[in-house]
């Protein structure tokens, strides 16, 4: 089974991060019980300090093998940016399961909740054109620190999450199931992020658990999340 991580800055991570992708790979490697691969066109982290925009300086170092670092995630990228890219990524990687964390950047900088929900539908159509049997787990947008001081932004997040749930219900198919994960319980942006948005180690574990537990509970795929290191 081939997994493709799709996301924005919370998923790609920056130089020096472990990333929730690493936590998820650890979980799968320890407990999946079947052959699997992580696929995707990119492998790097975002580097805001170096001479190049990407870095391979993962906190896990060689403990995170190169062939497990693949992803389709970008700093500052949202649903609208990924829709034109997902078909090629699914096709080239022969992805079976998409693990998607997108939306915050769209709502924060590019589109409103309704427009972002339309991008979700376009993204899904492109993914299915590449693999009609692809599965996807979608994480609702977790409000960040901006939402605490910007009520209009917080309202857009709430509205988008409602529209995301509706899109998942509308587009779900037996041959290509979609699953809306639950926001990690007790996720606290003041404890589980390093800047009010991007996950710290505790947040990385909670995000990975949201995906792992959703797949296990809904599809009996894999195991409940177990914290490894």
Give me the count of strands: 8
Radius of gyration: 16 Å
- Stretches where pLDDT is under 50 for at least 5 consecutive residues are none
Q: Biggest sheet, open or closed, and with what strands and sense?
A: 6 strands, parallel
Describe the global form: globular
Total number of domains: 1
CATH fold node name: Rossmann fold
Please state the average pLDDT score: 96
| CATH architecture assignment | 3-Layer(aba) Sandwich
Give the terminus-to-terminus CA distance.
24 Å
**Protein structure class:** alpha/beta
The top-level CATH class is: Alpha Beta
Our count of helices gives: 8
Helix content range: 40-55%
Percent strand equals: 5-15%
In CATH, what is the homologous superfamily? SGNH hydrolase
Secondary-structure element series = EHHEEEEHEHHEHHEH
Written description of the protein model:
The protein has about 230 residues and is α/β, with parallel strands linked by helices. It is globular and about 45 Å long. It has eight helices and eight strands, in the order βααββββαβααβααβα. The strands form two sheets. Strands 1, 2, 5, 6, 7 and 8 form a six-stranded parallel beta sheet that branches. Strands 3-4 form a two-stranded antiparallel sheet. The protein has a single domain, classed as Rossmann fold, CATH 3.40.50. The mean pLDDT is about 95. Helix content is about 45%, strand content about 10%.
């Amino acid at each position: 089974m081939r997994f493709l991580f799709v996301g924005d800055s919370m998923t790609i991570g920056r130089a020096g991060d472990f990333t929730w992708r690493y936590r998820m790979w650890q979980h799968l490697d320890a407990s999946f019980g079947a052959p699997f691969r992580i696929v995707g066109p990119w492998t790097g982290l975002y580097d805001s300090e170096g001479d190049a925009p990407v870095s391979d300086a993962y906190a896990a170092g060689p403990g995170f093998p190169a062939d497990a670092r693949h992803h389709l995630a970008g700093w500052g990228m949202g649903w609208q940016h990924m829709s034109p890219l997902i078909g090629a990524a699914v096709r080239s990687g022969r992805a079976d399961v998409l693990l998607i964390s997108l939306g915050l950047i769209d709502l924060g900088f590019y589109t409103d909740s309704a427009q972002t929900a339309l991008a979700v539908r376009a993204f899904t159509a492109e993914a299915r054109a590449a693999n009609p049997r692809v599965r996807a787990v979608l994480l609702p947008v977790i409000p960040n620190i901006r939402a605490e001081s910007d009520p209009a932004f917080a309202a857009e997040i709430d509205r988008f999450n409602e529209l995301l749930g509706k899109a998942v219900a509308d587009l779900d198919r037996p041959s290509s199931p979609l699953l809306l994960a639950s926001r990690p319980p007790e996720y606290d942006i003041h404890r589980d992020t390093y800047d009010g948005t991007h996950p710290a180690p505790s947040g990385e574990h909670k995000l990975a658990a949201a995906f792992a537990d959703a797949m296990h509970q809904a599809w009996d795929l894999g195991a409940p999340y177990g914290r490894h290191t």
